[in-house]
Amino acid sequence: MSFTFDATDWQIVPARSFDDLKVGEIFRAPSRTLTDAHASAFQAVSCDNHPIHYDVGYAKRYGHPAPVVHGLQVLAFTAPGATLLPHNFGAIFIAFTELSAKFLVEVHAGDTLYSALEIVDLKPLDGKGEVTTNVTIHNQDGALVLSGMHKYLLRTG
């Protein structure tokens, strides 16, 4: 048996067409437990140096049990590339065009987050297709900590 390697044909899952996608499909990311190191790294990258994110005394003075993980860091857990969704898109992907998010419960170091993207709409648009997903993140206690929406533009022809 002979195997010929071709990097241009290396896929995690078979690529699908816009018409192959189905409303109701759910794409989950692996769970992740946040640590102080994650929060520190995000603080360095974002330049958000508000003490609510790193000062235990400050956080407690303002009614939080611990420093609060940056909201944008939590939002990053909805990155489609953390799931198999963009691998399903393959070469038909054009752009990530829109997002929204509601932060519902604060997140702290030590929390484990579970994110999912569910296709809720597939709209043909003049030779292209728009995919809308609802995005959710739950914590280890089952609390919904973030809900929102993403939109992606795909080729259809």
UniProtKB/TrEMBL annotation:
The MaoC-like domain sits at 24-136
Q: Which Pfam families match?
A: MaoC_dehydratas
Q: Can you tell me which residues the record assigns to a coiled coil?
A: none
Q: Which InterPro entries match?
A: HotDog_dom_sf, MaoC-like_dom, MCH/BMMD
- Gene3D superfamilies noted in UniProt: Hotdog Thioesterase
Superkingdom, taxonomy of origin: Bacteria
Put simply, this protein is called MaoC family dehydratase
**Origin species:** Sphingomonas albertensis
